[in-house]
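Q: Protein A?
A:
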Amino acid sequence: MLRSLYSGVSGMKNLQTKMDVISNNIANVNTTGFKSNRVLFQDLMSQTTQGANGPANGLGGTNATQIGLGVQTGAISTDFAVGAPQGTGNAMDFYITGSGFFIVKGQGNETFYTRDGALVRDSQGNITNNAGMKLQGVKAAENTKYGEDFDPAGIDPTEQDLTDLKVPKEMDGKGYQSMSIDQNGLVLGKYGDETYVLGKVAMATFNNPGGLEKAGGNNYTLSANSGEPIVSSSGQNGAGSLEAGNLEMSNVDLSTEFTEIIIASRAYQANSRSITTSDEMLQELINLKR
C-alpha cells in the first residue's frame, strides 16, 4: 500500500518539472533564436516479487511478477529545429538558414555560440552582439578590394585563425562610409568610392547540437557530449547562409505547449487521486480495529 503513495508522489514531483519546462518555453515564445525543451520520463526500478521460470517438468514457463515504484525524469532535451525568419528591416540583423551558430567572445575570452543574429558596430569598430560580445571570424589581407577577381574561398575560417571582426574608421586613407555582411559571411566596408573586404564571419556546427548547454543571453557553451565545434564559412557543413534584415524567431509552438499543459495538469490530478485513494484504503484498514 505504501508503494502506491510513493509512486503517486514521484509522479506529482516529476510533472511539476514538466510544468517548469513548459512555462519556460511559453515565457520565451518571443525570444530570438530560442530553442524549446521537452521532458522525457522513465520508470523507476521495479520490485520483483516473483522471478521468471522456464518450462520444466511438463509445465510451461511463467513470467516475472514485478511492481513498479514510480517515475523519474530521464532527460530534458532541446529541440534545435530552425525557427521561422522574422523581418526587421535592419541590415545588421541576420537569420541563419541552416544549423550553424555564430561564434562570439565574452569577458575573459570565453567562447559562446549563438543563433541570435542581432549585431551592431561599436564605437571602436568591433562587430558585437547586443551584450557586447565580439563576433568571431577571419580577417582579410590588408586593403583587399572587393571586385570580380576576388575569390571569397581564399579567406575561409578555421578554428586556429579566429579573431575579433572589426570595421576600422579608415582604409587606405579613406573614411568609413558604411558596412554590410553578405549571405556568404563576407564583411564588406565602403570607404570613399571603394568597397573593401574586411573579413569573413565564422560559423560553427556540431555533431551533437543537443549536447550544448544553455548559458543565458541566447548563448550556448560546449559540453562533454556536444563535441568540438566544426568551424567553417556559411553555406558549408550544413551551417546555412545568412539572410540580412531578418532574425530567427523562437521555435516554441504554443498549440503544442498548451496541449502539454492540459496533459500535465490531468496527470497531476490523477496522481493526486491515487494518493488520496491509497490514504482512504489505509484509513479503512486502521478502522478494522476500533
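Q: Protein B?
A:
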Amino acid sequence: MKIALIGYGKMGHMIEQIALERGHEIVCKIDVDNQEDFDSPAFASADVAIEFTNPTAAYANYLKAFSHHVKVVSGSTGWMKDHKEDVERLVREGHQTLFWASNFSIGVAIFSAVNKYLAQIMNQFPQYDVAMEETHHVHKLDAPSGTAITLAEDIVSRLDRKTAWKKGTCVWDDGHVDGSADHKPEELLINSVRHDEVSGIHTVSYDSEADCITISHSAHSRKGFALGAVLAAEFTLTHEGLLTTTDLFKF
C-alpha cells in the first residue's frame, strides 16, 4: 500500500517506522514547511493518507486530500464542532473516505468497549456517581483529551442521570491549576493532569457511599497509537465512507 504522511512529528515518524515494517511504502511526507506537496504527483499516488496534525489544520488537510481523491486516516481532534456536517456531506455526496478516531490504540478500543458495557450496567444503580480523569504529557495543551471526550460521550449516552460532560480542572507540573471542579449533578466531570512525558492515562470511576469501581487504561508509549493508525489504513484501503474504530474492531 502507498501511504502519504500528513504531519511528520513524533507520531509521523513512528507511523512511518511501523508502516515500513509491515511492508508498506511511504510516497510522500507533508509537514508545515512543504504544504505545496499536497499538489504533487507523489501525494496523488497515495492509496491512503495518515493525518496527525492539530485541530486548526485537520479540516483543511482533509479537503486537500479529498481534492485528489486520497482516502484519509486521521487522529486529529477538535475539528468536529465546526466541520462535522461538512465532512459528512463530502463523504456522502463526494464519495470520499475518512477513517477518524480520537485514539487508535488497540488497548483503548478494548477499554472503550468495556466502558460502554459498564455504563449500561451502572445505569441500573443510581447510587454511583461517575467521574473521569485523564493524564498526558506537558506538551499537550488541549484538555480534556479527545479520547476522554469520546469516552465521556459514550457514558452520557448510556446513563440516564447524566446529560452532558463538563471540563473540570487541569493540574500542571508547576503547580498551577486551570478550570474548576464545579459542576451540576447531571454533568459528567472530566479532570485533567499534565505531567512529565506521560503518553496517556484515562480513568473512569463510579463512586458510592459503600464502594468505588474504577477502570483505567495506561499507555506505555505512542507505539500502540501508531500501530492502530497503520491497521486503520490497511482497513481503509478496502472500505469506503465515514469509518471509525468500531468498524475496524468488532467487539
